[in-house]
Amino acid sequence: MSKNISMSEIKSSKSSDLHQVAHILVCDAQSLPTMQEKRQELLSSGQRNIDMYCLSTGENETDLWPVFERVSAATVFVCGNTDVIQMVQDWTGHWPAEQLNFIDTQVRVDPKPVNVAFQVILANSGSQVHVDAEMSLLEALRFEGVEMVSSCESGTCGTCKTRLISGIADHRDHVLCLDERDRFIMPCVSRAQADQVLVLEL
């Protein structure tokens, strides 16, 4: 029969009682509905002896060491954010890997840079070039008739490397070293930082 042991029961239970279970389900509050579905799935398939714990982190961090101190034959399912995953991994480092199942629900999204329009001054002619938010610096230069050599146009080859005389660039390439970034720019992907006017040796 499945059961949901409270935190007070966990702290007072004997290891011999805790390790008669076939499945241990662990989740955080946000993942509780997902884990409840998993519990119901196991019950529907005829599985019994299922313990489920909803963890808290931070100051009120739950301690499940009494549950995992002794290795048993139980299959462990963990669903939660990175903190929850790490907590359970710390408790189960001595468990066989094949008994542990982790689902990290934390979404990691690298913020997409927001493009804004900016101005560029060509030092050799004194001309000013306006770069729209929807246009790359390379495209804007070509639109104004500046001959530019390029290849990958993704910031990885270095073919379009251009001398930067002044202004602070928003570097988005994978080519320039840190000590080059105040002197060069890759116009295929890089732009000006907010409120900056770039002066290029063109």
Structure in words:
With 202 residues, the protein is of the alpha/beta class. It contains 6 helices and 11 strands. The chain has helices at residues 7-12, 15-18, 32-44, 65-68, 82-91, 137-143; strands spanning 23-28, 50-55, 75-80, 100-104, 118-122, 128-131, 162-166, 169-170, 184-185, 191-192, 197-200. It has a 5-stranded mixed beta sheet, with helices on one face. Strands 2-1-3-4 form a 4-stranded parallel beta sheet, sandwiched between helices. Strand 1, helix 3 (32-44) and strand 2 form a beta-alpha-beta unit. The longest helix is centred in the first third of the chain and has 13 residues, at 32-44. The radius of gyration is 29 Å and the shape is rod-shaped. The N and C termini lie far apart (77 Å). The model is unreliable at 1-19 (pLDDT under 50).
Taking the alpha carbons of the first and last residues, their distance comes to 77 Å
Secondary structure: number of strands: 11
**Low-confidence stretches at least 5 residues in length (pLDDT < 50)?**
1-19
Largest sheet entry = 5 strands, mixed
Shape: rod-shaped
Order of helices and strands: HHEHEHEHEEEHEEEEE
- Count up the helices: 6
The residue-averaged pLDDT reads 85
Helix content: 10-25%
What strand line-up does the widest sheet have?
6-5-11-7-9
Report the C-alpha radius of gyration, rounded: 29 Å
SSE-based structural type: alpha/beta
Strand percentage, roughly? 15-25%
